[in-house]
């Protein structure tokens, strides 16, 4: 393997920072999660250490031979015949660009070779620069032995090693690599808002998300949401022990519903630790932008951002997620994972709703209109600086016990049933065109065969992926067949067949199209905050005056391409306060937002721009009219206060990227 490939691989090494856990090490309880969050020992092998080396044929092309070398970070490919390449093209497949791997066999009984296919999504080139990702599967032929059984064992050895590296499963030192090393496929509960963004969420999900997670061998059930707060109702009645994560395929709003639904359950202490993820198909994809940066990818929008986040989801891995408890003027409380905004940012967010058909461009148009009609708002901002210890004593114990533990026997009370409309459908019920040639692919240990899918705009034609003219097509050869006792998808799904339950029997009020924002009744107490309207304790800082905007943000990104808090982390335990005082010109405010695309707005030296890292804050608007938003959702206007709860949730982020790139 030439030095150029090794140097390129070294540049793409991951830092020493490790994941909270990966798909290969999935915690199943709060205690397991706490143990899993301890930093693991450093990897025993360097990123360039060869793990496997072998010679293989190609498929569907005949006659070519390749030398493959697998390292912890990449697969090196070097052509041996018909003519060795001096400078191999496509000779380095980074595992960060691989969604999964499977073994195959020929449908011709006379073919003793076995095959393994690697699903890659490399970035193309546009004018000499990196462009969008494209699906590029690579299939290799294991034919070094005389019998199919021996060739199959070799193909399975390589496929297993690749999947172990992708899922964070350590490889044994004795070289015995068998499919039994792989754990059961993770089970994901997918929620899709078909109206997200420009209304393309369901199409993007079918064409990009479902094929990729199927290639990764992830087991899933998918439900389309039908109305506001539908996701909240679903997660409140979900048996969380059957799932390894809840993933929203939409914008930031659907995840807001999911988190507040988890915190509204009687068992919220355990429920909120359920890993949640986001695959961006909305107009506001701020958290996905932060996840993309955490993974070491270049800033991206649209389908490119979706493919990046899907690749990270396939790899597994999570981080603790800080959640901000926001108490509104009425005394109701909700939890934020993103931001609280007042002034220019919230005005643009809400007023641009009428341009939702434009997707993320709605915010650009809204910003231009907002600059043309710039307002200032008088108010009072108070905050507890991060370096100051709370004046009130911290409780000696941690989070309070769940309601069920306080009032019932040790066994938690079952969640009340949720009224499901007849339109609740799992992915197997939904019309997916472009049928796959039979037999359909199945993922290892999947409850049911994978659904008929459209792979990135085209059906997974075996002749296209795994065959060519004159070649016998290949059939899937799963690494691990589903055990006879595998649960069926119907048992894992909250969907009920037959007559839907009536709202009167569920104990919940009937849903209405204009249901209010998700409000959580559970969650930890805000021990840093006195009641609204009462004096603040010593140690708080208060600012009063005219503001153009006030933003309290938790992660680094305000949008997929807006880095509002460049040094923020998912689990830094801080709320990052940014404000712009009155008196700023329209041109200066525009320069701030343009610089925010690179996260360099604090370097402009704007005298009206302020920043503080805090643990809690109180905002008191003194202007009678205005707009307040929490995670992009409009809430009641009036005084509010909030406290950060470090690491309360868990976010599916995938493995971390290059040093200095983590949000």
From TrEMBL:
Keywords: ATP-binding, Kinase, Membrane, Nucleotide-binding, Transferase. It is found in: Endomembrane system. Residues 183-330 form the DAGKc domain. Residues 1-17 have a biased composition (Basic and acidic residues). Residues 456-470 have a biased composition (Gly residues). The keyword Protein transport does not apply. Its EC number is 2.7.1.91. It holds the Pfam family DAGK_cat. This is sphingosine kinase. It comes from Canis lupus familiaris.
């Amino acid at each position: 393997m030439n030095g150029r490939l090794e140097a390129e691989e070294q540049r793409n090494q991951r830092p020493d920072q490790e994941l909270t856990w990966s798909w290969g090490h999935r915690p199943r309880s709060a205690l397991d999660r706490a143990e899993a969050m301890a930093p693991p020992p450093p990897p025993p092998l360097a990123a360039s250490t060869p793990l496997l080396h072998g010679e293989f044929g190609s498929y569907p092309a005949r006659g070519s031979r390749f030398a493959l070398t697998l390292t912890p970070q990449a697969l090196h490919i070097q052509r041996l015949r018909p003519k060795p390449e001096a400078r191999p093209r496509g000779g380095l497949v980074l595992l960060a660009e691989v969604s999964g791997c499977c073994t195959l066999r020929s449908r011709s009984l006379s073919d003793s070779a076995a095959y393994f296919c690697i699903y890659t999504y490399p970035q193309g080139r546009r004018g000499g620069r990196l462009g969008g990702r494209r699906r590029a599967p690579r299939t290799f032929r294991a034919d070094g032995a005389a019998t199919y059984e021996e060739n199959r064992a070799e193909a399975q050895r390589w496929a297993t090693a690749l999947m172990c590296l992708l899922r964070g499963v350590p490889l044994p030192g004795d070289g015995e690599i068998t499919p039994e090393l792989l754990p059961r496929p993770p089970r994901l509960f997918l929620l899709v808002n078909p109206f997200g963004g420009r209304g393309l969420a369901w199409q993007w999900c079918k064409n990009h998300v479902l094929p990729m997670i199927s290639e990764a061998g992830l087991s899933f059930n998918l439900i389309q949401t039908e109305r506001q707060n539908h996701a909240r109702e679903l997660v409140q009645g979900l048996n969380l022990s059957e799932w390894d994560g809840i993933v929203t395929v939409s914008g930031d709003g659907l995840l807001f519903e999911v988190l507040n639904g988890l915190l509204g359950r009687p068992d919220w202490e355990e429920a909120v630790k359920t890993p949640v993820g986001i695959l961006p198909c909305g107009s506001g994809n701020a958290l996905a932008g932060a996840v993309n940066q955490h993974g070491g990818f270049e800033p991206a929008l649209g389908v490119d951002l979706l493919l990046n986040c899907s690749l990270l989801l396939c790899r597994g891995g999570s981080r603790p997620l800080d959640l901000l408890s926001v108490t509104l003027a009425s005394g109701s409380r909700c939890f934020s994972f993103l931001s609280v905004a007042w002034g220019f940012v919230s005005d643009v967010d809400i007023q641009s709703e009428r341009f939702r058909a434009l997707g993320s461009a709605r915010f650009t148009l809204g910003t231009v209109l907002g600059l043309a009609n710039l307002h200032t708002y008088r108010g009072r901002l108070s905050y507890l600086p991060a370096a100051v210890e709370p004046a009130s004593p911290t409780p000696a114990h941690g989070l309070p016990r769940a309601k069920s533990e306080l009032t019932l026997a040790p066994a938690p009370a079952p969640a009340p049933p949720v009224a499901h409309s007849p339109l609740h459908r799992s992915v197997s019920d939904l019309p997916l065109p472009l049928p796959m040639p039979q037999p359909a692919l199945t993922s290892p240990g999947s409850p049911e065969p994978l659904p008929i899918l459209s792979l990135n705009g085209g059906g997974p034609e075996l002749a296209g992926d795994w065959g060519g003219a004159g070649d016998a097509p290949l059939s899937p050869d799963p690494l691990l067949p589903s055990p006879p006792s595998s649960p069926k998808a119907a048992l894992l799904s909250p969907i009920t067949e037959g007559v839907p339950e009536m709202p009167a029997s569920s104990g919940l009020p009937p849903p209405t199209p204009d249901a209010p924002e998700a409000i959580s009744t559970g969650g930890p107490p805000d021990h840093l905050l006195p009641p609204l309207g009462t004096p603040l304790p010593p140690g708080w800082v208060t600012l009063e005056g005219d503001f153009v905007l006030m933003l309290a943000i938790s992660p680094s990104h305000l949008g997929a391409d807006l880095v509002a808090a460049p040094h923020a982390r998912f689990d830094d335990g801080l709320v990052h306060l940014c404000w712009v005082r009155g008196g700023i010109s329209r041109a200066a405010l525009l320069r701030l937002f343009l610089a925010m695309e690179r996260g360099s707005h604090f370097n402009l030296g704007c005298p009206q721009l302020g920043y503080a890292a805090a643990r809690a804050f109180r905002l008191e608007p003194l202007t009678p009219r205005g707009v307040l938003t929490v995670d992009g959702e409009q809430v009641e206007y009036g005084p509010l206060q909030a406290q950060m709860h470090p690491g309360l949730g868990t976010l599916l982020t995938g493995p971390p990227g290059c040093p200095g790139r983590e949000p």
